């Protein structure tokens, strides 16, 4: 079975697979310490969390 390129892994993460990607990464111990993969992955995760928080703030009209 061929290895999956990092571009494809990042694209899955961008399109909403952050939760599943995190679980799979630690369950299979894959890309956990990769110096190339982790910074991009964390930026994607941070952006998605910010987006969700913004949507919740707008939806709940906290401000």
Please tell me about this protein's structure.
With 63 residues, the protein is an all-alpha fold. The chain has one domain. Helix content is 73%, strand content 0%. The protein has two helices and no strands. The protein has helices at 6-27, 37-60. Helix 1 (6-27) packs across helix 2 (37-60). The longest helix has 24 residues, at 37-60. The radius of gyration is 14 Å and the shape is elongated.
Summarize this, please?
This protein is mainly alpha-helical and 63 residues long.
How large is the radius of gyration?
14 Å
Per DSSP, the total helix count is 2
Structural class: mainly alpha
Percentage of residues in strands: under 5%
Distance between the termini: 51 Å
Could you state the order of secondary-structure elements as H and E? HH
Oligomeric organization of the protein chains? single chain
Instruction: Sum up the overall morphology in one term.
Output: elongated
Largest sheet features: none
What helical percentage do the residues reach? Answer: over 70%
How confident is the prediction overall: mean pLDDT? 83
Count of all domains? 1
Beta strand count: 0
Please mark out the parts with pLDDT under 50 across 5 or more consecutive residues, or reply none. none
